[in-house]
Amino acid sequence: MIPLNGPLEVGMRTLVLLSTSFPQPLDLAQLVYLDHVMLHSADLDGPPSLHPSLPAGPGELAMKRHLIEQGLVVLLRAGLADVEATADGLVYRASEEGPGFVNVLEAPYIGDLRTRANWIFRDLRLPAAEVRDATRQITDRWVHKFRDSLPLPGSDLV
């Protein structure tokens, strides 16, 4: 059994994003944000979310960066993605084989990922410069939810 959010699963999600944006490269910050959007698309008025919202939301984004890095290693070793050093840092893109590999996968989950990735790049169209701001908005929303769930100062905690 493959562990949930293991390098292989995250690598496949990343490959779906890279294949949908092909030949446009994406940096790590974009991949982290877009993976979150793909899994929690209903939060942005998109298709139904694939994963439930968790109380530990802010920790999810922090862990996601490391998981996507591991997934990218899997993709790079398999020849399904390429990395390029630019003046702004490293960017990743699907290799020539990447989109074809995704297209032969028939699992319903991959189909759901493709639907959401197409929605992201067709309808959402978030410019690269706005990714960090959008990520901050997600974190701010979680902070407000957390604050709202805390008891008021001076109230009984019983």
Spatial extent as radius of gyration: 17 Å
Morphology call: globular
H and E order: HHHEEHHH
Rounded average pLDDT: 82
Residue share in helix: 55-70%
The separation of the N and C termini measures: 42 Å
Q: Structurally, how many domains make up the residues? A: 1
Q: Which residues form runs of ≥5 with pLDDT under 50?
A: none
Structure description:
- It contains 6 helices and 2 strands, in the order H-H-H-E-E-H-H-H.
- The N and C termini lie far apart (42 Å).
- The chain has one domain (7-149).
- The longest helix is centred in the middle third of the chain and has 22 residues, at 57-78.
- The radius of gyration is 17 Å and the shape is globular.
- A hairpin with a 2-residue loop joins strand 1 and strand 2 (89-94).
- It has 158 residues and is mainly alpha-helical.
- Helix 1 packs across helix 5 (108-124).
- A two-stranded antiparallel ribbon has the order 1-2.
Brief descriptors of the model:
two-stranded antiparallel sheet, 158 residues, 2 strands, 6 helices, mainly alpha
Question: Could you give a short description of this structure?
Answer:
The chain has 158 residues and is mainly α. It has helices at 7-21, 28-39, 57-78, 98-104, 108-124, 131-149, and strands at 81-86, 89-94.
Task: Annotate the secondary structure layout.
Blueprint: H1 7-21, H2 28-39, H3 57-78, E1 81-86, E2 89-94, H4 98-104, H5 108-124, H6 131-149
Antiparallel strand pairs: 1-2
Helix pairs in contact: 1-3, 1-5, 2-3, 2-5
